[in-house]
Amino acid sequence: MDHKVITHWKGNSQFESDNPSGKTLLIDTSEEDGGNNSGLRPKAMMLSALAGCSGLDVVSILKKMKVDISDFRMDTYGELTEEHPKTYHTVSVEYHFYGNDLNEDKIKKAVDLSIEKYCGVMEMFKKFAKVNTSIHYHNN
């Protein structure tokens, strides 16, 4: 499957980009960098794509395993190189699970399957950055 995305300049530093789903988003930069701070920043969107890809895998696998969680969050951090072009050299993804009597073994298996087998965005990140992951369980 191929994807096509159309990104259209809206003036100043703002762009509108579509998605194969038909949804759009705004891309912009900070005011100090000449933008309006009205949209998402490109590199940060990469971190969102990473978390979203893995998160979709994890919730799908947990559903198949019949594992109940009350909440799930991922905190994703990217460390940039000092020189231009600035790229992520290290990325950390923290998986946070909330619930009663969390099944830690099954949750770990779901996360590991996403990281090692299913998440294509994770695989792409591994080609240019060191990727660290951790799982945090928050039992109510």
Automatic annotation (TrEMBL):
Organism expressing this protein natively: Gelidibacter salicanalis
Gene3D superfamilies: 3.30.300.20
Top-rank lineage group of the source organism: Bacteria
Biased composition (Polar residues): 10-22
Region (Disordered): 10-39
Name of the protein in question: OsmC family protein
